[in-house]
Design a protein that fits this description.
Largest sheet of chain A: 6 strands, mixed
Strand content of chain B: over 45%
Oligomer: heterodimer
Shape of chain B: globular
Largest interface: A-B, 21 and 26 residues
Structural class of chain B: mainly beta
Number of helices of chain B: 0
Number of helices of chain A: 0
Radius of gyration of chain A: 14 Å
Radius of gyration of chain B: 13 Å
Distance between the termini of chain A: 41 Å
């Protein structure tokens, strides 16, 4: 069984300040973990993914995430927010030893103030 | 190359009608997924195809929902006797094979009046 919890429904930051979007997961197998971004009226776009190589994963647009098995976390960070980062972010877990059916979190809305 | 495409982009129908939603995956992708996303929620899994066969349809909410992928490429999601609660964005994604990175289409926004 697998599940994912995004700890914040909304995160508000000022432009140029760091971003932290939190995600915790549970998985019966070695998980694959993903972060997707969804801009208004746009399709879901992959930001980054973890599949058991390096625990610190770098993605597009300056985002990165760190897989911490002991904490069952996969938090998404960015050193400096840009206005264009305002969007909905989804954390996703998929059991690689299981059925390949991913489970999405409920999403975190990132608001960036000028 | 072309990404995943979905048609129509918007569909308005009346309660009780039948609708078909189409997904064109990325060429060569053997895995295809359908999801439903309600307002303020993450995508909810409906069905997963590996090739022509439905490898997992455990997410279909009831027998009014059905999907096919007869030639292992294009897929159609079919909803019979639509209800207002079926209103949502229906997303399609494809991947090279099961468990690989999924690439999403823009979705079909279904509104049942």
């Amino acid at each position: 069984a697998q599940s994912v919890t995004q700890l914040d429904s909304h995160v508000s930051v000022s432009e140029g300040t760091p971003v932290l979007l939190r995600c915790n997961y549970s998985s019966s197998y070695s998980p694959s973990l993903f972060w997707y971004v969804q801009h208004p009226n746009k399709g879901l776009q992959l930001l980054l993914k973890y599949t058991s190589a390096a625990t610190l994963v770098k993605g597009i647009n300056g985002f990165e995430a760190e897989f911490k098995k002991s904490e069952t976390s996969f938090h998404l960070t960015k050193p400096s927010a840009h206005m264009s980062d305002a969007a909905e972010y989804f954390c996703v877990v998929s059991d690689r030893g299981g059925s390949y059916i991913p489970t999405f979190g409920r999403g975190t809305s990132l608001i960036v103030h000028p | 190359g072309a990404g995943v495409s979905q048609t129509p982009s918007n569909k308005v129908t009346e309660k009780g009608k039948y609708v078909e939603l189409r997904c064109d995956p990325i060429s060569g992708h053997t895995a295809l997924y359908w999801y439903r996303q309600s307002l303020g929620q993450g995508p909810e899994f409906l069905i997963y195809f590996q090739g022509t066969g439905a490898a997992d349809d455990s997410g279909l909410p009831n027998d009014r929902f059905f999907a096919v992928r007869p030639e292992g490429s294009v897929s159609t999601l079919k909803i019979q006797r639509t209800e207002r609660g079926d209103s949502a964005v229906y997303l399609c994604a494809s991947s090279l094979s099961g468990g690989e990175t999924q690439y999403f289409g823009p979705g079909t926004r279904l509104l049942v009046l």
